[in-house]
Amino acid sequence: MCCRRRQDLLMRCAVLGSPIAHSLSPAMHRAAYAELGLDWTYDAVAVEEHELPLFLRSLGDDVRGLSVTAPLKRAAAQEAHQRSEHVELLGVANTLVVDDGMLSAHNTDVTGALAAMQERGLLSGIRTARILGAGATATSMAYALSTHGLSRLELVVRDPARARETQQVAERRGVEVVVRGIDEPLTETVDLLISTVPEDVAGARSRELTAAARAVFDIVYDPWPTTLLAAAAESGLPTVSGLDLLAHQAALQVELMTGSTVDPQILLNAAMGELATR
User: Fold this and answer.
1) Of the candidates 50, 52, 274, which has an alpha carbon nearest to the alpha carbon of residue 14?
2) How many CB atoms lie within 10 A of CB 121?
3) What does the pLDDT look like over 212-245, one tens digit per residue?
4) How confident is the model at residue 222, as a pLDDT?
5) Given this model, what pLDDT does residue 10 score?
6) DSSP for 44-95?
7) H-helix segments, the chain
8) Is 73 an active-site residue?
9) Cα→Cα distances 234→73, 102, 211, Å
10) Which of 183, 190, 194 is nearest to 158 (CA)?
11) Rounded mean pLDDT of 103-132?
12) Is the pLDDT of residue 84 over 70?
């Protein structure tokens, strides 16, 4: 019994972030393990950014993978021993895979977002976009769009200085970038609006925001549905939800951690089921 497969062992995985109690990742990953017949565990662990280095150094041999959410995505990229191409380009990671004590960092937000948009028929024809927020997730979204023909991007932020990293990523891809304050009026209609900011920020301006967009992608899923998505649907706009992204990026995480594929729809169903209990 010297060579048991990893899939046959009881392995531990988790999602890290703060706050983390609202996360749907445990429900989705557990559903994936059930589908794959894996006796693995997946938990939610509250970790602040300054706690991450010590937390990662204290991992046991039974830990296989970690999903990473705010505010840890940039710090996770820095802590890894190896980085995927997307992580190297963006400095943002949402996945850490543990192998013989080595941490490899991956970004499934980029590919997951593209898959979610493709599934909803929104991937082609996006030439102009407006992103609310400029944090780690916004950086991934800007890069994803830049790989599919984006020519002009408007970043709407509280503090223009915080948009610098996202702006640079897009500009390196040849995208024209304009940075605007969160309270500035919207003067142009864009092909796609992406919101990465909390409900209390986007929801208050939902009518104005949807009136200046031809499609809406709201990364936020708490509360569900968001005011922004509801306003978009009421206006007849095509939409992509944070749950769509969550399911696709989680399916890619499951594959990285287990070596097996799972249908994102199974994860989406698990997330919706969990939301129904809240």
Assistant:
1) 52
2) 11
3) 999 999 999 988 999 999 999 999 999 999 999 9
4) 87
5) 75
6) EEE--GGGHHHHHHT--TTEEEEEE-TT-HHHHHHH-SEE-HHHHHHS--SE
7) 25-36, 52-57, 73-79, 85-90, 108-119, 136-146, 164-172, 199-202, 206-211, 227-234, 242-258, 264-276
8) yes
9) 33, 48, 11
10) 183
11) 97
12) yes
**Which residue has 């543990």 as its token pair?**
98
Kindly indicate the confidence band of residue 8, based on its pLDDT and cuts at 50, 70 and 90: low
Domain boundaries, the chain: 6-107+244-276, 122-237
pLDDT for position 4? 41
Dihedral over Cα of 261, 141, 24, 267: its sign:
negative
Tell the burial category of 173 from Cβ atoms under 10 Å away from its Cβ (0-12, 13-18, 19+): middle
Cα(89)–Cα(51) distance, integer angstroms: 25
Q: Which of 29, 30, 64, 73 is catalytic?
A: 73
For the domain bounded by 6-107+244-276, which CATH number is listed? 3.40.50.10860
Distance between CA atoms of residues 265 and 272, nearest Å: 10
| Short-list 204, 213, 259, 248, CA closest to 232 | 213
Residue 276 has pLDDT above 70, yes or no: yes
Cα separation of 258 and 41, whole Å? 12
- Supply 141's token pair: 């979204």
Whether the domain at 6-107+244-276 and the domain at 122-237 fall into the same CATH topology: yes
Is the pLDDT assigned to residue 1 strictly greater than 50? no
CATH of 122-237, one of 3.30.2310.20, 3.30.420.40, 1.10.10.200, 3.40.50.720: 3.40.50.720
- The two most distant CA atoms of the chain are separated, in Å, by 67
